């Protein structure tokens, strides 16, 4: 019985982690990405794809958040 609870809990944590990663990879959502592209710019991930050879870039610290407060940055994630 205890093993089932631990396994379920671990599976829930893995699903939660995967959902958080997917949310971050959406870069603020479709509206934010469209605004970036409408301005004639590539997204940060697209720029990385251009800069690095395929399979050579390894992202680190995906969950780091900024602590900036100037210029309204405290309102942004």
Can you offer a commentary on this structure?
- The structure is a single chain.
- The protein has one domain.
- The model has no long low-confidence stretch (mean pLDDT 85).
- The chain has helices at residues 2-25, 30-38, 44-51.
- By secondary structure, it is an all-alpha fold.
- The radius of gyration is 17 Å and the shape is extended.
- The chain is 53% helix and 0% strand.
- It contains 3 helices and no strands.
Fold topology:
Elements: H1 2-25, H2 30-38, H3 44-51
Give helix % range. 40-55%
E-strand count: 0
User: What's the number of domains?
Assistant: 1
Mean pLDDT: 85
Low-pLDDT residue intervals, each spanning 5 or more residues: none
Helix-strand pattern, N to C?
A: HHH
Supply the helix-strand structural class.
mainly alpha
**Shape verdict:** extended
The value of Rg in angstroms is 17 Å
Characterize the largest beta sheet: strand count, sense, and whether it forms a barrel: none
Our estimate of the beta-strand percent is under 5%
Number of helices: 3
Distance between the termini: 40 Å
Quick structural gist:
By secondary structure, the chain is mostly helical. The protein has one domain.
Q: Which key terms come to mind for this protein?
A:
3 helices; mainly alpha; 77 residues; single chain
